[in-house]
Design a protein that fits this description.
Largest sheet: 6 strands, antiparallel
Order of helices and strands: HEHEEEEEEEEEE
Helix content: 10-25%
Structural class: alpha+beta
Strand order of the largest sheet: 1-2-9-7-5-4
Distance between the termini: 66 Å
Strand content: 25-35%
Number of strands: 11
Number of helices: 2
Shape: elongated
Length: 187
């Protein structure tokens, strides 16, 4: 009798569990893809040279000063796999950035009080890009016919130690440089 009682309790528990079966299904799908576009080998390491400017001219330019002294280049992508529609860039400056401005990189070198900004454009007009490794709509380029071009323009301006460009300090004579790591993602 005891065995029947235990068996009956077990059957009731199993029947109750079956009665509590899910009323809905949730399906998860996705993919993992290593497919990327091919970056033109010559674009893997770039040097953009901004024209020479005197400290007084750079300091005296009306805002936005970075629009006058610029250098432009691009990153060319080919062989983009079918299904990819966009390349997104993210720039991380390898030095000090403006404490009050995520778009301002403080140049290093013998010249001082030089700030640099980036735009994903062939000219120094448009939205300034953050240089802290984040990206937004201004960092996106469409893939067309399995290829994409990401233009980049760097502009310079007089700045101060917090990188705002407002209340800038007169730059000093010398050379300056800046290095950015660029990461590309595909979607």
């Amino acid at each position: 009798m005891k065995k029947i009682l235990i068996l009956s309790a077990l059957m009731t528990a199993l029947t109750s569990a079956g009665a509590m079966a899910a009323d809905a299904n949730v399906n998860f799908t996705g993919s993992v893809s290593a497919a990327t576009c091919t970056l033109n080998a010559a674009d893997a390491s770039k040097t953009l040279t901004v024209p020479s400017v005197s400290p007084q001219v750079l300091y005296g330019l009306a805002s936005p000063t970075y629009a006058t002294y610029t250098a432009t280049g691009s990153f060319e992508f080919t062989a983009c796999p079918a299904g990819l529609t966009r390349v997104t860039s993210a720039y991380t400056y390898q030095g000090a950035t403006g404490s009050a401005n995520p778009t301002m990189a403080i140049a290093t070198g013998t010249a001082t009080n030089i700030g640099m900004v980036l735009l994903q454009s062939t000219t120094a007009t448009g939205t300034l890009l953050n240089v802290n490794g984040t990206s937004g709509v201004a960092n996106q380029a469409n893939i067309v016919s399995n290829a994409a071009t990401i233009p980049v323009t760097v502009g310079v301006q007089a700045t101060n130690s917090n990188g705002t460009g407002i209340g800038a300090t007169l730059p000093t004579v010398g050379t300056y440089t800046g290095t950015y790591l660029v990461a590309f993602t595909y979607s």
